Amino acid sequence: MKKTIYLTFMVLAGLIFIVPAVQSQNDYNPTEENLEAREWFQDAKFGMFIHWGVYSVLGDGEWVMNNQQINKATYEKLPAFFNPIQYDPEEWVALAKAAGMKYITITSKHHDGFAMYDSKHTDWDIVDRTPYGQDVLKKLAEECHKEGIKLFFYYSHLDWYQNDYYPRGRTGQHTGRPDKGNWKDYIDFMNGQLRELLTNYGEIGGIWFDGWWDKPDANWGLQNTYSMIHDLQPHALIGNNHHRAPKPGEDIQMFEKGLPGQSPYQSDEDAGIGDIALETCETINNSWGFNLQDKDFKSKEDLIHYLVNAAGYNSNFLLNVGPMPNGKIQQEFITRLRSIGEWLDQFGESIYGTRGGPVEPQDWGVTTQKDGRIFIHLLEPKGSSFLLPKLDNEVKSITLMHNGNEVDFEETGYGTVIEVPDNSREMIDVVMKVKVKQ
Length: 438
Fold this sequence. Notes:
The protein is of the alpha/beta class and 438 residues long. 24% of the residues lie in helices and 20% in strands. It folds into two domains: 32-354, Alpha-Beta Barrel (TIM Barrel); 357-436, Golgi alpha-mannosidase II (Immunoglobulin-like), CATH 2.60.40. Strands 5-4-3-2-1-8-7-6 form an eight-stranded parallel beta sheet.
């Protein structure tokens, strides 16, 4: 991920920022399989992000090579300490399912260039350089296929290790690489690794790119790369965390640490929202990779609110865990993920399979909808009642989702004034079903 200065995690309320939609997919005609995969993705709504690599050994996040200005020769000592003998993909997948997550996106190669799988294009990988010597992605792919969880691979365009990543970009200036290299050879290397990921691990959900922003003016050859991916696996979805409007060939538009149109990393000059599937990603504490000292954990209430807000903005939510170097996921993450899963067991109908509701996000919360049903998510009750802006059809009834009780309401010229029962106002999310007259 892009290095972040910590931003206070807040549930979005109040002002609504409307960003005009953009059209930049004119040269790309997705296949029927791809369109079906997009529908599945939008229905899934919730996924697990996993940042894991040899950087975990230092317990200082995934940017440690850059932030501590560790040169390449010194960094090469790290794999010898990476021996995750407690890694159990069954535990990881079971946790994702318990949290209500439908897919997993894991780092196959982060900015340090280290491949977390058996790559034949380099020995800078987990099989050749670590005492563990096993392909963790292969094990995870097998378990995901077994349990019906779709697996996506994160892949970093940016590479602080390969000499051919030259001229260098904005980051990785202190790794001790020579001031020369062949950019075309690097692109060939990148495409070779992507081909491995797309041919050796069965059907995958797609590729999650990051790091393009390090060299935005470079000749990345994205269209050739995207075409190769879609040719090898037509259903595979492509997303690129480049913080720009969607480019031809992309199926998902991602927003880092912010809802659609509100990520702090979106380019000011090109921050529009496309007409493709949307996804926002966030951390449970403030770090993507394992950080021993980061104890600033978000509450289950904040995380559930983020999930609900994402659905109200017609977006998926990709929630990150950074496993420890031994392969275990820390208890603080597990507790919160299980709490979200318990909430979804009761209220998942208002999230899964939905799209953004007929009412734009309000200071009190959001709406979602599916199959003619409308769901109100009252996240921030301001009093004994609130105003639902006028719908196209007259409201017939409103019921509380947690107990089925009917809610009093009154239609006005401005919308529907809805009463909030006293015993519901302390809930994390007061979910209401709205029926309208047809």
